[in-house]
Structure formats: structure tokens, C-alpha cells
Design a protein that fits this description.
There is one protein chain. The N and C termini lie far apart (46 Å). Helices cover 41% and strands 24% of the residues. The chain has one domain: P-loop containing nucleotide triphosphate hydrolases (Rossmann fold). By secondary structure, it is α/β, with parallel strands linked by helices. It is globular and about 50 Å long. It has nine helices and ten strands. The strands form two sheets. It has a six-stranded mixed β-sheet with strand order 6-7-8-3-9-10, with helices on both faces. It has a four-stranded antiparallel β-sheet with strand order 2-1-4-5, with helices on one face.
């Protein structure tokens, strides 16, 4: 459902993503881990069509993100780490607006939104202006609006930002259920526990490149570190950093 082939993204002299390739299958729950400035968010924005890669191709559900953007957007939902919402609207108005963008009939919008509002405990807030809602509540509104049209591919950056433990659990359970029903989930996070608990496969990105990819157990085998995924992550990123340093000519 997601195919990235030799993606390179440069911002001037900065190479944010460096020849990155990976494939994520239908219904797969795929997580991306990496240090700050590793290229995770840039990669996500390439998938979502928000930025154009310097070179390489990105496909979603078989459609080229750059050449067939409307076909991609019909099938994809994207929630950034700090989502933009129309503050003067209420959540109900925002859900209706989002549904209409995807040409959903009013009856379907109402049915889908009502089910998600109940699941995400948004009933007390549906008729209040979004501008007065807490960050965690706004995050839930953004996730509900993204799930509304039942996307084939769901891309989310740092999904647990601002969420209390109860609603973090709701998000995890909802995304896992949807992936088991066939929705592909592509998730970027700094929370290793989230990736370890939820993901079918994990990619570790460091300095714009995929340095390791596989199930949690496969990553542990590669790093030689048993136990918590944190040890594996630290070992693999350290290995890559040492490998890069070895290739740099000495004065």
C-alpha cells in the first residue's frame, strides 16, 4: 500500500532523507523510529504529498503521490504531530466539513462520526468551538476526522502527543483494530513502547536512511541486544553512527 523507492529530500545543503526505500503492505501496522532530525517527519510529508522529493518516487495504494495526488488523497488520511483545525468551528461542524470534502453522504457522515465520537469520548465537546478545547481533545478530534472516511492508508506522526493514558489506549486499540480489518497504518513515534506494543514491523531511521527494518524480534537479533526495544534502538543507531564516522576521512 505504501512504496517508497530511493527517496532523497534535500533542503539546500541539508540531506534530510537519503536514498530511502521501503514497502508497507495492506493491513500492516508499520512504525518508524529514529532520533530527532532523523528524517521521519520529512518521509511522512513525502508520503502525504505535502513536500516533493528531490528524487525518487512514492506510491500509495498503487498511485504515484506526485503524479496522481487526487487518487492518493481519496485513500489516505494524515494526522501530523500538531494538526491544523478550524478553531471557529465545533467538532461536529469540522466532521461534517471533512466528510463533505471526501464526498460522503450526510447519513454516512452522521453514522461514522457518531460511532467515533462515542468511542473517543467526545460527546461533551461536539458543539463547543474547537479553539477552547485542550490539546489532547483537539488531537482526538483530528484523529476522528481522519478516520471518518475509512481510509485505506492512515499516516500519523506522534499520535500520543497530549493524550492521557486512557485516551492513548483508545487510539491504540482503534488503530490496531482498523489495521486488522485491512487499513494500513504508518506511524512515526519517539515512544519505543508504542512501536514495540503495536507494530507488525518497525523501521529505524538514522540520518535519513533506514538502518534496520523488521519485527521487534528481528531487530533484537540484528542488534544482539535482548530485552527492551530501547536497548536495540540505541545499539543500532550507535552502530550506524560508528559506521559513518569510520567512512569520514581523517585529517
Amino acid at each position: 500500500m505504501i512504496e517508497l523507492s530511493h527517496i532523497v529530500k534535500k533542503f539546500g545543503d541539508l540531506v534530510a532523507v537519503n536514498d530511502l526505500s521501503l514497502t508497507v503492505g495492506k493491513g500492516e501496522f508499520f512504525a518508524v523510529l529514529g532520533p530527532n532530525a532523523a528524517g521521519k517527519t520529512t518521509t511522512i510529508k513525502v508520503i502525504a504529498g505535502l513536500i516533493k522529493p528531490t528524487s525518487g518516487t512514492a506510491k500509495v495504494a498503487g498511485y504515484d503521490v506526485q503524479l496522481q495526488p487526487l487518487e492518493v488523497r481519496k485513500r489516505l488520511a494524515y494526522v501530523p504531530d500538531f494538526p491544523f483545525l478550524y478553531d471557529k468551528l465545533t467538532p461536529w461542524e469540522f466532521f461534517r466539513f471533512t466528510g463533505q470534502i471526501f464526498r460522503m453522504e450526510d447519513s454516512r457522515i452522521h453514522k461514522s462520526a457518531s460511532e467515533l465520537i462515542g468511542r473517543f469520548n467526545l460527546e461533551p465537546y461536539t458543539n463547543k468551538p474547537i479553539e477552547g478545547l485542550s490539546h489532547g481533545t483537539r488531537q482526538r478530534v483530528a484523529i476522528v476526522s481522519a478516520l471518518l472516511h475509512e481510509p485505506e492508508v492512515f499516516v500519523i506522526d506522534e499520535p500520543m502527543v497530549g493524550l492521557d493514558p486512557f485516551h492513548a489506549r483508545v487510539v491504540k486499540d482503534t488503530l490496531k483494530e482498523r489495521s486488522q480489518q485491512g487499513m494500513t497504518v504508518f506511524l512515526s513515534t519517539h515512544q519505543l513502547s508504542v512501536a514495540e506494543e503495536m507494530a507488525d514491523r518497525i523501521a529505524i531511521i538514522h540520518r535519513g536512511q533506514v538502518v534496520a527494518i523488521g519485527t521487534p524480534d528481528q531487530l533484537r537479533d540484528k542488534s544482539g541486544k535482548a530485552g527492551a526495544l530501547e536497548k536495540t534502538f540505541l545499539a543500532l543507531t550507535a552502530q550506524e553512527a560508528n559506521h559513518i564516522e569510520e567512512k569520514v576521512p581523517k585529517d
